[in-house]
C-alpha cells in the first residue's frame, strides 16, 4: 500500500513539474517560405539549433510553429532560418543563400507575405475551416466525412476552399471532424492526409497540395495548379469558374498573414506529361467570342483565318497544318469532323463554353486515332453550387446580332441540369471592299442544348452525364441583290445558299469500384446526324452523315498509384452520302478498336505511353502508338518530349468547300484506295518543349519554347497550283512535312497588367506532282502581342478590364495563277499585315457586365479577295484565294446579365 501511495505521489510530482515547465514555454507561429520535405527538415533543424524546444513546419500552410523558452528570442530563430535560405515574415534570405538551396527547394519568392497592418484582414468565422478539394466529388466526400464525425451539418465551398461546420461541442469537436476529413484524403488547416490516402483519390479530386490554405485557385500565368482536371470516370472536365471572375490579384488571409496571387485565365499545366493549355471562360470574355472559331483570338498557339471571300467562315490551324489534322472534341466526344469540317466551329457558342483544353502534339490514345497535330476539347457549362442564369446580348455595327441564354442549376444533392439557348442573325449587306459581294453571309442560327448530370461517386460509385443538342443554320451569300427564293438559273446575281440541320445526343456514365477509388469504369456513347444542302452559283453540294461513337475505358493501378493504366475498346460508325453536281458518293466506315495506356509517375518525371489498334473496314488495320514524357529539372524548369502516330480518312468535298465558290473543276486522281479512290492519311508527330519560370520586374514570369515536326507517311494533297481553273486531289508521292517553332513569354510588369508575347516560325512543304513547294496560305513568320489590364474591384465588386491583341502575319505563298490573263493574276507572295483587336469591359457588380470592342482596328483588308468578281460565271472567277481579312474595322457592343 505504501509503495502504491509513493508511486501516486511521484506521478503527481512529475506531472506538476511538467506543468510548471510548460508554463515557461511560449508557442508562436510564423510564415516561412518553403517548397518540399527537404525544406521542412532544414527549417525545423535550423530552428531547433537556434534554441527552439520544438519546431513544426507545414509546407501546405507555409507556417512554422515554435515552442520556446521565454528567454529565447523568436527573432533570433527566424534570422537563422533566413540565413539558411528561407524567407519569412520578419527576415528575407540573401540572394546568395537562396540560390545555394537545392533546385527542388527554390520556392516562389514572388508571393511575399504581408502583415496584417498592411491590408484589410479577411477573418473567417469560428465555424469555418480551410479544407483542400477540387470538384463536386470532393464536396460530397468532405461533407459526408464531417457528418460521420458528428457534425449536424457541413457545407464545403470550392471557391473559398473552406468548410462551414455546425455541431454540438458536447458530442464532437472541430478537431475530431477535421481529422476524419483528413482520413478520407483532404488536407485541412489542422491535419494533413497521408500520402497513400491522397493518391488513392479519384484523379478528378487530386487537388494541388502546394497551394497555401486560403487561396482558392491561385494562378500566376503558368501556375503550379492545374486549371482543369479531367474526370477520368466520366470523361469530362470538372473545372469551374464564375462568369464574372476577373483576373485581378486576389488576397486571402491566413491567421493574420495575407498571400497575394493572380488568377490566370490560360494556364499551362505543370503536372501533365503533355503540353496542355487549360483555357477557362474568363479568357473568352477578352474578345467578342461569338463561337468557337473566335475563342482563340487571344491565344498564340492557334491561328485563325478566313477560308474564303464568299461564305465568310473561319478555320483554325495548328502547328502549321489545317484544322482537319487537329482532333476537335466536345465533352471528349468527336465533334467537328466529317461534313461539319467547314462550318462546325460556328456551332459551339462562346457563352456556352466552361473551359477548353488545348493539347499540342499527339494526345492520349484513349480519345481516338485521328489526332495528328493535337486536340482541342471544349467543355460546356454544367457546374454551379447554386442556380445561375445568364443572358448575353451582342451586336456589331454591321448588322449582326446575337443572344445567349444559359441556366445551370442543381436539382438536388445528386442531380443538376443545364439549359443552353443561342440565336444569331446577320441582316445587313456588308461590302467593305466594294466588289459587289457580301463580305459575310446573311442568315440565322438557332441552337439549343440540354444537359443532365448525376453524381453519386462517393456513395454508390456512380456518375452520369446526358446531353442533347439541335442546330438549324441557314446562310445566304454572294452578290448583293441575290434572292435565295429564286432559282440561280432564273436570276443574274451570283448566289450561295447553305442550309444545315444537326442533331446530337450523348451519354457518359462512370462507376468507381467500392473500396477502390483508383479503379473505375467509364462508357461514352454519342449519335450525330448532320445534313447540309447548299449551292454555289450553278454548282450544288449536299450531304448527310450518321455517326455513332462508343468508348469503354477501364482504369486501375499496378501495385500503387505511381503505376496507373487504362485499357478499353472503342467503336466508330460513319455513314456518308454526298452529291456534288451530278456525282453521288456513298460510303460506310466501320472502325472497332482497342487501346491500352500506362502512366508512370516518379518524383521528377511522368511518362504516359499508349497504343491502339483499329480495324477500319476501308483503310485496313491501323496501329497507333503515342508517348508523352515530362521531366522536372527543377520546379521552375520542365522539359517535355512527345511522339505519336495518327491516321484519318479525308473528306475531300466537305473539307474543301472554300474552293466551291469558284469555277474550278474538280479532279480526283485515284490510286486504288477505298475512299474516293484515295488512301487514308497517316502522319507521325514529334515534339519537344522547355518551360522555364523566372523573375521579371520582381514578379513570376514564364517562357515556353517548343518545336514540333509532322511527317506524313501518306497524305491527300489538295493541289490548287496545277491549273487556276482546276482543283486536284491525289495521294502523296514523296515527302510532306511541317516544322513548327514557337516561343511564348508571359509576364506581369505591374499589378493587374498581364503581357503575353509570342513568335512562331513555320516551314511547311510537300512534294506535289510538279515538284516540292511550300504549302500555300501558310505564313512562315508570325508575331503575337496580348495586353490585359484590370482595375481593382470596388466595394460593390465593380471593375474595368482592358484587353488588346495584335497579330502580325508574314508573307504567304499564293497559288500559281500565271496562266490567267494578266488582270486576273496574283503575285507569288502576299503582303505581310497586322490585325489589331481591342475590348473595354465594365463589371458594374457581380451581376452586370457591359463591353465595347473592335476587330481589325488596323482596317487592313485584302483588296483582291475575289478573282474576276465582275464575271462570277466566267472561267477565271475564284473566291478561294483568301490570305487576309476581307472586312475593315468592325465595332461591337455587348451586355452580360447574371441572375
TrEMBL record:
Gene3D superfamilies registered for this protein in UniProt: 3.30.70.100, TonB-dependent receptor, beta-barrel domain (2.40.170.20), TonB-dependent receptor, plug domain (2.170.130.10)
Subcellular location: Cell outer membrane
Keywords, ordered alphabetically: Cell outer membrane, Membrane, Receptor
Tagged with keyword Lipoprotein: no
The keyword Endoplasmic reticulum is assigned to this record: no
Domain HMA: 124-189
Pfam families: TonB_dep_Rec_b-barrel
UniProt protein name: Outer membrane receptor protein involved in Fe transport/copper chaperone CopZ
Region annotation (Disordered) ranges: 230-250
